[in-house]
Amino acid sequence: SAVISQKPSRDICQRGTSLTIQCQVDSQVTMMFWYRQQPGQSLTLIATANQGSEATYESGFVIDKFPISRPNLTFSTLTVSNMSPEDSSIYLCSVVGASGISYNEQFFGPGTRLTVL
Amino acid sequence: DAKTTQPTSMDCAEGRAANLPCNHSTISGNEYVYWYRQIHSQGPQYIIHGLKNNETNEMASLIITEDRKSSTLILPHATLRDTAVYYCIVPSIRNYQLIWGAGTKLIIKP
User: Fold this and answer.
1) Is beta strand B9-13 parallel, antiparallel or unpaired with respect to B104-109?
2) CA–CA distance, B84 with B68 (Å, rounded to integer)
3) Test the B interface: residue of A25, A107, A108 with most B CBs within 10 Å
4) Which residues 57-86 of A are in CB contact (within 8 Å) with B?
5) Closest to A105 in 3D by CA, of B71, B45, B103, B82
6) Helix H segments across chain B?
7) Counting Cβ atoms within 10 Å, is residue A76 exposed (0-12), middle (13-18) or buried (19+)?
8) Distance CA B92, CA B2 (A)
9) Nearest CA of chain A to the CA of B48: how many Å?
10) Cα separation, A71 vs A53, whole angstroms
11) B46:A111 CB<8 A
12) Do strands A10-13 and A112-116 pair parallel, antiparallel, or not at all (unpaired)?
């Protein structure tokens, strides 16, 4: 399996500020994704993090609000910019295509719980 | 993605088999059925997937009806640690682009 860590695990931020969330995988993976899970809700895919190129965003999410980097095959960051209370959510990183593991199994990090005041 | 319908919640006694149903009547011939679960305050965890044949692994069994319009996830001997939200997903674009519904909240009772 792929072991994923996220930093920070939780944070409380003031509106108007930005927070960068890091996702680190213990092995090289093909695909990395960022999800949002609003309180009491299911997961929503924000974007696919592409190595060496711009992320691919889902409908309703834009690069200016959620810039994403993926400098290599084991690391990605998601920034939540100009935050408002509506951005309070759990942000999750997931990966597909770890060495020796089929693309059918997606691994998730523990999540970053963000509260915006 | 093919739409899936799951009960909102279910209870099961510890040690008994938990049977979680999922309807996916609009599924097409080459679409897989995936099951994930999310234990409280954790990231989702892959359980199992299948196309048309029944599947079994160390976590669960997946029974898919012959017409593929529905499936059942079976946890053979449920424990308290199986309390979680269980998601049935039928991705249509790529198998890793998952669209998450509300899932079934399974509560295992002692």
Assistant:
1) parallel
2) 25
3) A108
4) none
5) B45
6) none
7) buried
8) 7
9) 8
10) 9
11) no
12) parallel
Is A38 near chain B, with CB under 8 Å?
A: no
Residue B54 pLDDT > 60 = yes
Answer whether residue B2 shows pLDDT above 70.
Answer: no
With beta carbons less than 8 A apart as the criterion, state whether B27 and B90 touch: yes
pLDDT digits (tens, 9 = 90+) for B9-23: 999 999 999 999 999
Kindly provide the b/e burial profile for residues A85-110, where b requires at least 16 CB atoms within 10 angstroms of the residue's own CB: eebbbbbbbbbbbbeebeeebbbbbe
Question: What pLDDT shows up at residue B80?
Answer: 97
Residue-level pLDDT at A113: 97
B58 has pLDDT over 70: yes
A-B contacts (CB, under 8 Å): 45
Mean pLDDT computed over B88-92: 86
